[in-house]
Amino acid sequence: MDYPLRQNMLYIDSRDRAAGTATNFTINLDESIRNVDHITLIKATIPQSGLTNSEYHILRIPEFSPDAHGSNNILQQAFAVITPEEALGPTHYVSNKPCPHYFRPVKARINSLTLQLLNPDGSVASLSGGEILYTFAVYTRDIVPRSEKNVY
């Protein structure tokens, strides 16, 4: 059966971390996200002067099995490869071409996420001041157990 797909936005501000750095931290979500079909990075907002000068950075989310293909092991672990897009004032917008990460079967629940922003060599990127705002689109399925359906 094909259940309806619903889009939700997920915003993660690195300031909300309990521990770690702006480029390597785990965040516990206030509310679990259930029945996740797929998730896409829409944008990472990073201070303009914050990152070391690199043509791209790699976002790794260890909780998700990587399904990327790449010319090296580091790229194969990527949830997304993000590149500079445009500079507007004090913030540098960095995004990738949206590429959804699908869960098969549907992921029952996401309670927390570890976000690691890596340099091309696989080392954790360093941010000289400021924080990062990640914007994700999360697509969930409205799955209702058979016992909760109204049967007439």
- Determine the fraction of residues in helical runs and give it as a percent range: under 10%
What is the 3D form? Answer: globular
Written as H for each helix and E for each strand, in order along the chain, the element string is EEEHEEEE
Contiguous runs where pLDDT drops below 50 for at least 5 residues? 148-152
From the helix content, strand content and strand pairing, which structural class follows? mainly beta
Q: How many distinct domains?
A: 1
For the biggest β-sheet, the strand order reads 2-5-4-3-6
For the secondary structure, the number of strands is 7
Number of helices: 1
Strand content: over 45%
The pLDDT mean sits at: 82
Cα end-to-end separation? 19 Å
Q: Major sheet, described briefly?
A: 5 strands, antiparallel, barrel
The radius of gyration is: 17 Å
Describe the structure.
- The C terminus is likely disordered.
- This protein has one domain.
- A hairpin with a 2-residue loop joins strand 4 and strand 5.
- It is built from 1 helix and 7 strands; from the N terminus they run E-E-E-H-E-E-E-E.
- The relative contact order is 0.36.
- The protein has a 5-stranded antiparallel beta barrel.
- It is mainly β and 152 residues long.
- It is globular.
